[in-house]
Every structure is written in structure tokens, then in C-alpha cells.
Design a protein that fits this description.
By secondary structure, the chain is an alpha+beta fold. The chain has helices at 41-47, 94-98, 102-105, 129-151, and strands at residues 3-8, 11-16, 20-21, 26-30, 35-39, 50-55, 61-63, 68-74, 78-82, 87-92, 114-118. It is 25% helix and 37% strand. It is globular.
Length: 153
């Protein structure tokens, strides 16, 4: 699998080039109906050891771009999850409800989160791996400050 690499300090985050990426650090793999989404290496590294995942509703459901769709808890953070696109969320990964640690183990495979059929009304297109790494270069400066701020508390 061809990947691009982004250095998060001393840690390497890899991103397969056969996928698209959203600014909320999810990857998107094309399926027959739409996209399968999961967390990219950047998000998994920041979260570290996911142990709880909850969805706000059952699939299928219509979602809007940046609508809160669930929450996640890990060793490092508790966070709300937001829809990366407007569309029809058709399936959540049922295996993650029993054991969300698969996100840590196989983020680009069995650790996928949900499948979504994109609407034509999307406000923000997905990015290629190259565009996403450029985006990370911009946000990493702020992320480093945030991490150091948390470490000093």
C-alpha cells in the first residue's frame, strides 16, 4: 500500500494514498454506494487507546456536514464525533460497539467507523492524501501548542 508520511514530532503518521481525507481527521475509502470512514493515523495517535464509542442515533439516518453524530473516549481525550459530509449514514461498524479497540489495532481496515452515501449538497470536499498532509502541516503547529499546554497542567 502506497502511503504518505507526516511526522508528529518523533512519531510517524502514515496515510494511504488510495483514500480521501476530511479535515476532522477521518479517512474515506470509496465503496459501491459511497464511502467507508475511519480515523486516520493522526487522530489515532492523538487519541491513544480508544476504549469507548457511542453513536447518537441508529443507521440509516440523514446527516449534515459537521453534525454531531457520536462520541469517543480514549486514554487521552473525550471528544464528540462529527459528520465529515452531508448524506445518508447507512451503517455503523457493529464490531466496534463491542470492542472499539480495533480502531487502535487496524485503523485502515477492521477499525472503520461508518459508511455514508454522499449528498450533492456538500460544503467541503474531501481531500487527497497529498492535500491532507499539507493541511496537517498547517494545523500541527497549533496541535503541538495544545498538547504542550495539556502536559503542563
Amino acid at each position: 500500500m502506497d502511503c504518505l508520511t507526516f511526522m508528529m514530532g518523533e512519531f510517524e503518521a502514515t496515510f494511504p494514498v488510495d483514500r480521501y481525507y476530511a479535515k476532522n481527521h477521518m479517512w474515506a475509502e470509496e465503496t459501491e454506494q459511497g464511502y467507508r470512514f475511519g480515523f486516520g493515523a493522526y487522530a489515532v495517535r492523538l487519541l491513544q487507546d480508544v476504549y469507548f464509542l457511542d453513536w447518537n442515533f441508529d443507521a440509516p439516518a440523514t446527516v449534515s456536514f459537521q453534525q454531531e453524530i457520536g462520541s469517543i473516549e480514549s486514554k487521552k481525550a473525550e471528544s464528540s464525533l462529527y459528520a465529515p459530509l452531508t448524506g445518508e449514514l447507512i451503517e455503523f461498524n457493529p464490531a466496534l460497539m463491542e470492542d472499539p479497540s480495533e480502531i487502535n489495532v487496524d485503523k485502515y481496515g477492521k477499525g472503520w467507523l461508518f459508511e455514508l452515501i454522499e449528498s450533492s449538497e456538500n460544503e467541503e470536499p474531501l481531500m487527497t492524501a497529498e492535500q491532507y498532509v499539507e493541511h496537517l502541516e498547517k494545523v500541527w503547529i497549533v496541535t503541538k501548542r495544545t498538547i504542550k499546554g495539556q502536559a503542563n497542567k
